[in-house]
Amino acid sequence: MPADALALTLAAAVLHAAWNVLLRGSDDVEARTAVVLALSVLLFAPVAAATWSVSRAAAPYVAASAALEGAYFAFLVAAYRRRELSVVYPVARGSAPPLVLLGTALVLGRHVSAGAAAGVCLVGIGVVLVRGVRRGAEGVLVALAVGCAIAGYTLVDKDGLRHAAALPYLELVLAPVALVAVPAVALRRGVGALRAELRPAAVLTAAASFGAYALVLAALRLAPAPDVAAVRETSVVLAALLAALFLRERVGLERLAGAVTVAGGVALIALS
After folding, report:
1. Could you tell me which residues are beta bridge partners of residue 54?
2. Cβ partners under 8 Å of residue 30, min gap 6
3. Residues 150, 28: Cα–Cα separation, whole Å
4. Which residues, listed in sequence order, are joined to residue 164 by a DSSP beta bridge?
5. I need a labelling partner for 149 at 20 to 30 A (CA). Which of 33, 63, 100, 129 fits?
6. Do 264 and 122 contact (CB within 8 A), yes or no?
7. What is the spatial distance between Cα 91 and Cα 236, in angstroms, rounded to a whole number?
8. Alpha-carbon separation of residue 269 from 77, 113, 124 (angstroms)
């Protein structure tokens, strides 16, 4: 993997873990999520307009991806209300690649290699360690639902991006999600809840989300997708470490070992 692609991918991993830390660190995760979605759409708009290339064939993919992205953010908020980031993030991010693998194997009848199967097993072991052997499944099932949503929009976007440039496509996907999320929070919680989250942390969260995506796109121009996907999973370990440093979560050796195992399993799937 070229050094510049490696640097871009690692930077993307840091930003992805960071925006989740900023989101989880809010006292009102639901309101911050709605504000971040709106700010992300605004930040994306100039770049999306400058790189606009979208065909009509993209419409059904955009609609399906928007529905799945909406589910993703709804489940993410629910998961962060129940469990710590150092549990939710590894489970959600780590479960998505095996689910994509299983989905393509079942739907498209593709062969699953021994290495990929081993990676799935490692992810399963890692999830158990992250959850804690003696702890219940509270929050973990919702985190798995987040992983299902990620797997769903990954499969949809893989085909959808054949009909549109990446940034305009993402803008079209996120815009309706923001248009639903912001009024929904305003109606249920009041405009004050949204106004309270209009602060630098929300802007940083939106910028980090945008930056992570842009850096991955840049890395994919320089290195094969499996290599980028494998390195990107370092965000699972980074998120656990950042949760301990900034959110004061109790990330013991068992949970950290689980995060490392999940990242290793996903990397093995990506490279198989």
Report:
1. 164
2. 77, 185, 189, 193
3. 23
4. 54
5. 129
6. yes
7. 9
8. 28, 9, 13
